[in-house]
Amino acid sequence: MKIQCRVCDFSVKNGQNCINFRGTPQRIYGMNVKNYQDALNIWEKLRYAKYLDAHQNSWYDKSIRADNYSFLDKLNSYSDKTGFIEKFCSFTGFPNLRTVSDKIDSTFKNCINRIARDLNSRNLTSGYDIIDSGYDPTCSLGLRKAFPGSDLDKGYIILAGNEYNSAKQEENIVNNFKGRLWDELDQRIVSLNHPDTFPSVYTKSQVKNMLSGLDETARKVQEETTSQNIRNNISGSLLASFLGPWGIALTAIKLLKKQAKQAQKIALSTDPYEAGEFNRKIAQKISTAKEREDVKNFAFFIEMVKANLVRNPSLKNDSIFTAIKISPFVKNSNVTQVEAWLNKINGGYMKSKLRSRMALESDFYSMSTDTKYDLIKDVIKYCTDDQSSRFSKYFKNDDDIANRYEKLLQSLR
To answer: What is the Cα Rg of the chain in Å?
Structure first.
């Protein structure tokens, strides 16, 4: 029997990788909770993504997750709640969000390095070596204000792979790694169950092959855009009409200055549709929906690689980073607006939920035991976005991100 893994897009035989990723959470049985130690033992099970799978959200899926979280409602005494709170805070670092964020970072890196070592030893290869990994520097984790169970916003991993492998062999390396990541990353610390936040995983040769094709298309888009702009401006230029070649040259210089100003405006824009103008032009050059989807996903991935490379180039000497640095596609791709958001953040902007979290550490210790426990219950359920609305100031985004990106994403499909 074969099962299709929706994370990996990979058919695997029964008993092999990704068998647990079915889109429906598995039920935890035998939840007999008499004290906080029993509750901690059940919470330990929630390290596994299979008990929380939030990639399908029917009433049935939600009801299973609600049952799996129900142990949290069975602690009623002051001593049991206090005991659970102390163990939770000790394990996660909560409510010190810098400590929490550092633990998320180290948990992710330790996990992927452990998986790489194991897969290499099992397959007698170095194809699973980690060349690079990271996430969005503008997200709550990047800003060191993450809660336990936060996601890796636009997280990514580049694996060594093997340049002599076939495309299918490279795909298998990626899928094997994703399956292990799903099974082994501790969801209590960093969650793979938030919508659209499973880390992007590519091999080095996959990145190079994508860049090779996209760079060629990017050059065509740049040439066509520049030529069309010159023609449009010269045809309507009185200066060019009166002064001939000199007028054409002066008009071209004015155009280049105008283009530079427009490029700066786009680079500073946090409007996805406006900022993604180059990517929209790229999409128009691609004939199939499957290729356009691949290019869209690759753009989100490669922009994060570039952003982290710019900020931390040390020890990044692999040839793939040279290819990224000189790539015209990477230079112009802007589906994430990461630089624009960093510019806003450096100017003092901060999401309201993150501002609320800044005061949480001091506020937490003045809360009653019941309030602390209720907040921790919501933090645990935040792993799958099942928290209540009681503490929404710590969780709710300022806008509907999906709605903000919809126009751009539609244009890239």
So the answer is: 25
Which residue's entry shows tokens 């009433």?
59
Tens-digit pLDDT profile for residues 208-239: 999 999 999 999 998 887 766 555 555 555 44
Name the CA dihedral angle for 377, 383, 384, 388, rounded to a multiple of 10 degrees: 30
- Tell me how far apart the alpha carbons of residues 180 and 183 are, in angstroms, rounded to a whole number: 5
Q: How far apart are the C-alpha atoms of 235 and 249, rounded to whole Å?
A: 13
DSSP 178-216: HHHHHHHS-TTTB-S-STT-SPEEEEHHHHHHHHHHHHH
pLDDT in tens, 310-361: 999 998 999 999 999 999 999 999 999 999 999 999 999 999 999 999 999 8
The pLDDT, as a whole number, for residue 263 is: 66
pTM of the model: 0.88
41-74 burial string, b = 16+ CB within 10 Å, else e? ebbebbebbbbbbbbeeeeebeebbeebbebbeb
Coil vs helix vs strand at 352: helix
CA 273/CA 300 separation, integer angstroms: 14
**Residue from 86, 87, 71 nearest 34 by CA:** 71
DSSP letter assigned to residue 242: H
Q: CB burial class (10 A; 0-12, 13-18, 19+) of residue 274? A: middle
How confident is the model over 261-308, as pLDDT tens digits? 666 677 789 999 999 999 999 999 999 999 999 999 999 999 999 999
List, in sequence order, every residue forming a beta bridge with 58; answer none if it has no partner. Answer: none
Angle at 6 between CA 397 and CA 66, to 5 degrees: 55
Q: Among 189, 192, 208, which residue's Cα sits nearest to residue 200? A: 192
Peptide linkage before 137 cis (omega within 30 of 0): no
CA distances to 68, 89, 133, 273, 393 from 64, in Å: 6, 26, 33, 38, 27
Q: What is the pLDDT of residues 234-261, one digit of tens each?
A: 555 544 455 455 555 565 566 556 656 6
